[in-house]
Amino acid sequence: MSWSTLLNDVTYRDRPNNNAPNTTSPSNTITTADARSQISRARSYASTAATSVSISGDISSQLHGGYSHPLARAWQAERQLTKAMLMWPLFVTDNPDEEEIIPSLPGQKRVGLNKLVALLQPHIARGLKSVILFGVPLAPGCKDALGTAADDPQGPVISAIRLLRRAYPRLFIAADVCLCEYTSHGHCGILHEDGSLNNALSVDRISDVAMAYAEAGAHCVAPSDMNDGRIRAIKLKLIEAGIAHRVNLMSYAAKFSGCLYGPFRDAAGSAPSFGDRRCYQLPPGGRGLARRAITRDIAEGADIILVKPATQFLDIISDAKEIARDMPIAAYHVSGEYAMIHAAAKAGVFDLKTMAFEATEGILRAGANIVISYFTPNFLEWLET
Ligand SMILES: [Zn+2]
């Protein structure tokens, strides 16, 4: 119904005695034009009566028609989840034959190099586009104060990058860059004697590790350590080595401290042996600090801005989209978020698939267009239908 017809209808309905003959016709004679007009009014009156309950003067109240069809509902989202948006975190150990279920991360495994290609194969066949690698050194005595094993050329991450580049040439391979999996103290850098982070030495070391991963063939290096100035240091080294044009630098710009990383630390064996990470990861209430860190990392040469965790920090994702509006925004739906959804679904609180979609669509709505998610294998299946 057009706006003008509707106005006529409402005017007609509100007229007193609108069933009376048309007294404006000369001599009360019913002409053919009058008859047509009365039929049309009768139709209008019927349609108006049907809709008058919900029309309260403003036509903008009528929304349902816009999303009655499933496809029309999908169109309401600015971004719809696609396989290309998903990045799957993988834990690669230095024990080549390991294939170990991670109890706190349902369905996820820690694997050695000999199991990696086979683990990925069915997911690649379903459309897996990218992974992010985390090294898990298990060999006794391999951890030290400098995290020497992080860029061991025979270590799990560098070996996995080389292996996956050969096995799956079209797979986008990101490598998380940090020292906490490799340091004896479990912190994300090199420490002063008093246990605090030595930022300068840490940045130097972490940028070397990033270079080793980039030179091994990683498409993306992603420093998660939160030392000040590491994005600039890595970018400068990439430029100096002549490989900045082919390596994406994804900054964990807004990584918050909190209790959602427990299952990850189980999986990666990276819990700090003393203290916590609150002096370098952001405080959960620190929205302004996150905005400053995002602004800083853009200026230092980041190619992607990452927010972590995701569902408790949708405002930060939205801020990142506003501040870094010309860049891709990634969100890490972390281990604790994933484990919570599994636990609640198991307890009958909700359906696992429905909640996985709701959580991830919320992350996209906030502004992310890349989601690092343990649900990636599930989504590859769910998105088929
Ligand atoms: Zn770390």
UniProtKB/TrEMBL annotation:
Recorded catalytic reaction(s): these are: 2 5-aminolevulinate = porphobilinogen + 2 H2O + H(+)
Fetch the Pfam families from UniProt: ALAD (PF00490)
Q: Which GO terms describe its molecular function?
A: porphobilinogen synthase activity; zinc ion binding
Binding positions for 5-aminolevulinate 1? Answer: R265, R277
Query: What residues make up the catalytic site?
Result: K255 (schiff-base intermediate with substrate), K308 (schiff-base intermediate with substrate)
Indicate, by first and last residue, each region the UniProt record lists as having compositional bias (Low complexity).
Answer: 17-32
InterPro entries assigned? ALAD (IPR001731), Aldolase_TIM (IPR013785)
Keyword Electron transport carried by entry: no
Quote the SMART domains the UniProt record gives: ALAD
Region of interest (Disordered), residue spans: 1-32
Cofactor(s) this protein cannot do without = Zn(2+)
Q: Annotated pathway, please?
A: Porphyrin-containing compound metabolism; protoporphyrin-IX biosynthesis; coproporphyrinogen-III from 5-aminolevulinate: step 1/4
Q: Which GO terms describe its cellular component?
A: cytosol
Q: Does the keyword S-adenosyl-L-methionine apply?
A: no
Q: From what superkingdom does this record's organism come? A: Eukaryota
State the EC number(s): 4.2.1.24
A Gene Ontology BP annotation from the UniProt entry? protoporphyrinogen IX biosynthetic process
Detail which positions bind 5-aminolevulinate 2.
S335, Y374
Binding positions for Zn(2+) per the UniProt entry: C178, C180, C188
* Matching SUPFAM superfamilies: Aldolase (SSF51569)
Q: Which NCBIfam families match?
A: PRK09283.1
Subunit relationships: Homooctamer.
Task: State what this protein does.
Answer: Catalyzes an early step in the biosynthesis of tetrapyrroles. Binds two molecules of 5-aminolevulinate per subunit, each at a distinct site, and catalyzes their condensation to form porphobilinogen.
The entry sums up its family as follows: Belongs to the ALAD family.
Protein name per UniProt: Delta-aminolevulinic acid dehydratase
Taxonomic path: Eukaryota, Fungi, Dikarya, Ascomycota, Pezizomycotina
